[in-house]
Amino acid sequence: MVTSWEMRQSCYFPCTLCLTNMSRIADCNAVLKALQPIFQEQGMTETVHNWEDHGYLVTYIKKNGSFANLRIHPHGLVLVDLQSYNDDMKGREEVDQLLNKVEERMKELFHGNIKRVKRLPAILRGGVIDRYWPTADGRLVEYDIDEVVYDEDSPFQNIKILHSKQFGNILILSGDVNLAESDLAYTQAIMGSGKEDYTGKEVLILGGGDGGSNIDQMVIDGCKKHMRKTCGDVLDNLKGECYQVLIEDCIPVLKRYAKEGRMFDYVINDLTAVPISTSPEEDSTWEFLRLILDLSMKVLKQDGKYFTQGNCINLTDALTLYEEQLSRLYCPVEFSKETVCVPSYMELWVFYTIWKKQTGI
Amino acid sequence: MVTSWEMRQSCYFPCTLCLTNMSRIADCNAVLKALQPIFQEQGMTETVHNWEDHGYLVTYIKKNGSFANLRIHPHGLVLVDLQSYNDDMKGREEVDQLLNKVEERMKELFHGNIKRVKRLPAILRGGVIDRYWPTADGRLVEYDIDEVVYDEDSPFQNIKILHSKQFGNILILSGDVNLAESDLAYTQAIMGSGKEDYTGKEVLILGGGDGGSNIDQMVIDGCKKHMRKTCGDVLDNLKGECYQVLIEDCIPVLKRYAKEGRMFDYVINDLTAVPISTSPEEDSTWEFLRLILDLSMKVLKQDGKYFTQGNCINLTDALTLYEEQLSRLYCPVEFSKETVCVPSYMELWVFYTIWKKQTGI
Question: Catalytic positions (chains A, B) (predicted)?
């Protein structure tokens, strides 16, 4: 059994230098010549590719498996990318020293006339811990993950619970950050931001990824054990004095309630974010979403409120499409929305309040 | 004048494949052979480096200046990194298609036995807009920057105001995210989180990077124009009915107030975050910080409060050192701290309330 890849990881260090006007020095050759000795001093062997009109790619290879790419673009962009295996502090210091030398040499060559120098933190790949969980709007963000608490495949999805130093345990379903222990703001927002008095009220919660009622039993099992700051002891017993958790498909339940005429003061839909797809006609998720909305309205009292999450504020097209769906329900509704900062999301999130339009007498 | 680099950028696409047990197929050669045709179909020319004990690095070069690195580690980590210039949607689709093929071929080869496949969003470098502003604890985060609003060097620092789609304008001083228009939470926290009644009180604010009183006139000029959601019209006139903005070194001002016996109900220190350095004896920043604290305590009423930011919650060493400084002031003080989610920071931030210890009679 070879599992050693799990103990090691690849470290990629990106460094960018933007020059104000490279044509002044006539060609990329000067950069190549100036930087060559720095890599050669490291005992690296060189392979040069010259595109002529697209500049140079120089690959420097070290005996220990590390390598560097030096990409010189003729319009004044110089990229130095280092990749090594088995990250350790010594390796990082070496990388810093090497990049310091590159920067120094370039400043000498261009008499300080460098528009921008930027080094990005190392990107770590292939280790036990994956720290990169892109936002809903597709941005690269690195989390301070220091432990894999739970990692299982259910028949429906991959379920991860990862520990973040600052956010506590984070539930990640098929790569999407769902909720962290730090995210009380999410729960507050989807419950109406503290403006509601729930005393004696009938509340129907659909979903509840935070260790609430999800159709995937394994999510519940994982959350019950590892997301207790979020779900408390609610999931230990699926029935309490004033609540009951049903682990079922919510559609038949909603249909049954509608048929029985059971009505709620609040319906809280925490099933899924608004689909990112912008073609509602083609995507059955939108139909599912409208079905849920229609059924929810059927079991919502005339003066009741429906709370749900939308999506990240940057996905304006998806949010607009969602709002269009609201005009296509069986009964007329009105809505308001609120933008909330959910700590572990690293992006602002939109929440909706929907209610039945009151018809004048 | 060559300025075309400003209109183009380099796009780096990182893709990771982790295999459960690569030794089963005896060597990395099979991976190399399986993936070769995919790159060759793209008209890419191949350069192979074989480390023997450290696996392969294969560089594939395309005529248009793009290239790919295929790094095969013998313990089962395969990295495919693509780098191209002149990002466009067509380029991205091509990259996706190529990576799909790689993934497919690898799954065939290992009969689906691949532990993890991960593609990260492209890293864009060298363009007009720099979207990467690492957190205080050194994590790589990408912002949704879509415009450079202001970018100037003052005698003290580089001052940038960048527009984020979700956070509004963000003030970035020498690479550190200072405050965005979304960050009311910061201002509220450093003012005591809404628990104070400022009516008729004397308040001394030191610093105020959010377009408040910074010694760097250029920061004020930039903020006055571009951070109005944060600073309102306060900076248009440095003197108002109930406030005065002094653009001076705060040390002599504090000394003068102390000498005059001028006392304040509140001192709000927004000068700088707690230094990240862990060697307070060597770093003059700590001395500066203690000097400010001592002088502030001298002008603070016996029942007054001192508010200040700490740093990100993950920098526990720096925060502990800061708290140790508090026991070294001329008068005994007590403190409490609060952790706040400042939207544009993408990390939790610690704020302190400090007060003079009430001595019993």
Answer: 270
Q: How far apart are CA A46 and CA A39, in angstroms?
A: 8
Q: How far apart are CA A323 and CA A279, in angstroms?
A: 14
Q: Give the CA distances from residue A320 to residues A12, A176, A274, A312, A313, in Å, rounded to whole numbers and listed in that order.
A: 39, 22, 10, 12, 11
Nearest Cα to Cα of residue B198 among B119, B275, B287, B304 = B304
Residue of chain A minimizing CA distance to B15:
A125
Q: What is the ipTM of this complex?
A: 0.92
Chain A nearest-CA distance from B318, in A, is: 15
CATH at residue A92: 3.30.160.110
% of chain B with per-residue pLDDT over 70: 89
Q: What domain range includes position B234?
A: 181-356
Establish whether B81 is a catalytic residue: no
Q: Domain ends where: B74, B97, B119?
A: B119
In chain A, residues with a C-beta closer than 8 Å to the C-beta of B142 are: 139-141
- Does A328 reside within a domain? yes
Provide the 3-class DSSP secondary structure of residue A31: helix
Chain B contact set for A73 (CB, 8 A): 5, 10, 65, 85, 126
Asked whether the beta carbons of B171 and B180 are under 8 A apart, the reply is yes
Domain of A249, CATH number, reads: 3.40.50.150
Instruction: Give pTM, 2 decimals.
Output: 0.92
Task: Specify if B79 maps to a domain.
Answer: yes
pLDDT, tens digit, for every residue of B199-209? 999 999 998 65
Q: What is the pLDDT of residues B236-249, one digit of tens each?
A: 888 888 888 888 88
Report DSSP state, residue A343.
G
Domain-terminating residue out of B100, B119, B138: B119
Query: Which run of H or E residues covers position A90?
Result: helix A89-109
CA distance A339 to chain B (A): 10
Number of inter-chain CB pairs under 8 A, A vs B: 196
Q: How far is CA B64 from CA A204, B13, B44, B58, in A?
A: 58, 16, 10, 18
